[in-house]
């Protein structure tokens, strides 16, 4: 038996029933909003990925130069850092001792930075050699890169520019002479910025 109040609620057309879940219209609105946000985010995500590859390659080159300098001091001998510069130009590099010619470390460009291209200054130079004091030599004493058999140019490089098609941020790795500071910098940064070249 229902008492008066319960019967009124059950039989009344104005009684509110509890709803659970969501309606089809609400679901379509959410899908539409997610689709619009994804359409806006995809191009920016692509640019972010390319910029990440540029930064990855620049940091790798900077770390390789630091490794070569540290190995030269630790081994008390000349140690060279050589960019691959293979065709197509990539960011692979090698660290090796000059005498005896022996490989120490290497990095392949397919380890996270395949889309980048390098610009070396002075043009044509691919190698820099550090002596046992950690100083960059003004002339490379080696003749051949052990890992590749490539000839070593006499003039060492001082700047490596790293860029990529579609990227918005180019970076440089510089060896500041005579202080021998290895610095990664942004050529587009304002001169007052600590990341400027």
TrEMBL record:
GO terms for biological process: protein secretion by the type II secretion system. Coiled coil: none annotated. The chain crosses the membrane at residues 20-42. Residues 57-145 form the General secretion pathway GspH domain. Gene3D superfamilies: Glycoprotein, Type 4 Pilin. Keywords: Cell inner membrane, Cell membrane, Membrane, Methylation, Transmembrane, Transmembrane helix. It is found in: Cell inner membrane. Pfam families: GspH, N_methyl. GO terms for cellular component: plasma membrane; type II protein secretion system complex. The keyword Membrane applies. It is a single-pass membrane protein. Its main location: membrane. NCBIfam families: IV_pilin_GFxxxE. This is General secretion pathway GspH domain-containing protein. The lineage of its organism: unclassified sequences, metagenomes, ecological metagenomes.
